[in-house]
Structure formats: structure tokens, C-alpha cells
């Protein structure tokens, strides 16, 4: 079952799942971009304050196995922080969450991820997203996300089929 997270009751679970699942990035992303924990609690609070709304996948025992965020910008929808517990990967949970959030979107969808996270890129491509050009990626990451320049350099952006750069101009 997929339900919207309530930050008051789900914050700790979101935080734990993000930091459990993000271990997959260790040694893959540039060392200067790795943190331990990967996402400090204060950064997660900031993301939520900036409008990232989290949804969760619950198993039959009401345990949260995955989380995914959605953030509405004026002309686009961003999928943010998609994570499934390490022990629960490869069970279709991420795909179910993504499908749910895609159905909610009223505007074209953009997803940013690390350029070397081949499994994440393959996952999004499998679900109908395509990688944008380097020039477009650089522009989008600076307009739609609040990330350091070093992260812009080491990331990519994937877009939904209905994406058109002119939507932001």
C-alpha cells in the first residue's frame, strides 16, 4: 500500500531508509560528495520545508519499505529522494512508488541523480524517462534544484516523455 507520509510520525523512518539505501552510493559517487550519514537530519528537514512531499510503501505488516519524494515547482514536477530499504530491493517497490507519483504529476517530470549511479539511471529509463543533454542538465539543475556546483558537475537529469525545455522559458 502507498500512502502519504506524515512528517510528525514518519520523519525518523524516512531518515533511516534514505541513509540505509544510500550506502549503495558509497564508493560510486565522488568522495567529496559522500557524507556519513549521507543525508543529515537537518538537510532532510530543509528539503521538506522547501516542499518535498514524501510517500511511503507499506508491506502487509504496515512496515515502511520504501520512500519517494515529489516536489511541485511552477512548471515542472521533481521526483526526489527515491529509496528502498536495502533488504527490500528488487521487489518492485520503487517502481510502484514511481508509478504512483507519476500519476499525481500535472506537469512534466524531472529526476536528478548521480551520473555514476547506473542502476538508478537504468531504473528510470525502464520506467519511460530519458536523459537530457549535458547543456540542458546543467541549466535544469541550477534552476530547479538547490545543489552545490560540484553536484551539478557529477549529476544527470532524466525527463518524462512530455518534457520540453521551453516550459521553463
Quick one: CATH class? Alpha Beta
What does the largest sheet look like?
7 strands, mixed
**Overall 3D geometry?**
globular
Distance between the termini: 38 Å
- What percent strand? 15-25%
Count all strands and give the number.
Answer: 7
CATH superfamily: Gcn5-related N-acetyltransferase (GNAT)
- Helix-strand sequence: EHHEEEHEHEHHE
Low-pLDDT residue spans: none
Query: What is the rounded Rg?
Result: 15 Å
Helix content: 25-40%
Q: What structural class is derived from the secondary structure elements?
A: alpha+beta
Topology:
Blueprint: E1 2-4, H1 7-21, H2 41-49, E2 53-58, E3 64-72, E4 77-84, H3 93-104, E5 109-114, H4 118-126, E6 130-131, H5 134-144, H6 149-153, E7 155-159
Parallel strand pairs: 4-5
Antiparallel strand pairs: 1-2, 2-3, 3-4, 5-7, 6-7
What brief labels describe this structure?
169 residues, alpha+beta, Aminopeptidase, seven-stranded mixed sheet, 7 strands
Structure description:
The chain is of the alpha+beta class. The chain has 6 helices and 7 strands; from the N terminus they run βααβββαβαβααβ. Strands 1-2-3-4-5-7-6 form a 7-stranded mixed β-sheet, sandwiched between helices. The longest helix is centred in the N-terminal third of the chain and has 15 residues, at 7-21. The mean pLDDT is 94.
Amino acid at each position: 500500500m502507498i500512502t502519504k507520509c506524515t512528517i510528525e510520525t514518519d520523519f525518523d523512518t524516512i531518515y533511516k531508509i534514505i541513509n540505509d539505501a544510500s550506502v549503495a552510493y558509497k564508493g560510486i559517487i565522488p568522495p567529496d560528495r559522500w557524507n556519513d550519514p549521507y543525508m543529515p537530519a537537518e538537510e532532510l528537514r530543509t528539503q521538506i520545508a522547501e516542499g518535498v512531499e514524501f510517500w511511503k510503501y507499506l508491506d502487509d505488516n504496515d512496515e515502511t519499505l520504501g520512500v519517494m519524494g515529489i516536489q511541485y515547482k511552477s512548471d515542472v514536477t521533481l521526483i526526489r529522494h527515491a529509496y528502498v530499504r536495502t533488504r527490500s530491493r528488487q521487489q518492485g517497490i520503487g517502481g510502484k512508488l514511481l508509478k504512483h507519483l507519476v500519476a499525481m504529476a500535472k506537469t512534466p517530470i524531472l529526476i536528478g541523480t548521480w551520473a555514476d549511479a547506473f542502476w538508478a539511471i537504468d531504473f528510470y529509463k525502464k520506467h519511460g524517462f530519458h536523459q537530457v543533454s549535458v547543456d540542458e542538465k546543467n541549466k535544469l539543475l541550477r534552476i530547479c534544484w538547490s545543489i552545490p556546483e560540484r553536484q551539478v558537475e557529477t549529476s544527470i537529469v532524466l525527463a518524462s516523455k512530455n518534457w520540453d525545455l521551453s516550459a521553463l522559458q
